[in-house]
Each structure stands twice: as structure tokens, then as C-alpha cells.
Amino acid sequence: MRKVRDYDAELKALGDKARSLKAKRVEQLGQLVAATGADTLDAETLAGVLLDAIGSKDAGAREAWRSKGAAFFQRRGRKGGGDAGGIGSGAQAEPGGDAASGSDAAANR
Question: CA-CA distance, 91 to 71, in Å (whole number)?
Fold first, then answer.
């Protein structure tokens, strides 16, 4: 005889897993903000920069941002990739300046 499936338990387990994955993603995004030094920006400025990036139709600017991001992660990997605090302190000057110039370039095009 077949075993009866407990749909309620399966649904609850899936819900728990979804909440866990969402919490992990939020934590990782927070670590990324700290690692890039963007945590020094106020929330309104950071939100504005991200909204400009999302709304940008300039393929060249998006590719430049992607390249800078890839370079950031490559540098991070070489430094050992430990905690985000150590990375953010060493990389604050570069990404902050790059993000501003990248946003300005997109806005001016």
C-alpha cells in the first residue's frame, strides 16, 4: 500500500526553505554593500544609485559596471575573501569613486 503524502508538512517545509533562502540573500546583499564601502552612503543615495543602474538603457555603461564588479570580486578572491569588513576598508576609495563616475556617465548619455 502506498504511503499517504502529508501535503501540509511538505508545503510548510518549502515555505521554511524559501524564507531561509530569502534571509540568506538579504544577508549577502548587506555584506556586498559593506564590502564595497557603499554602507557609508545614506540610504536615499544608495537607493538612487541602484535605481539609476536598473533604469539605465546604456549598454556601454552597464558593461562598464559589470567589468568593475567582476574586477572587484577577482581582487576580493586574491585577498583571501575573509570577512566583508576587511575588504570594505581596503576597497572603499575605488568603488565609491567608480560608482559615482559610472552613474554620472549613464546619466549624461
Answer: 12
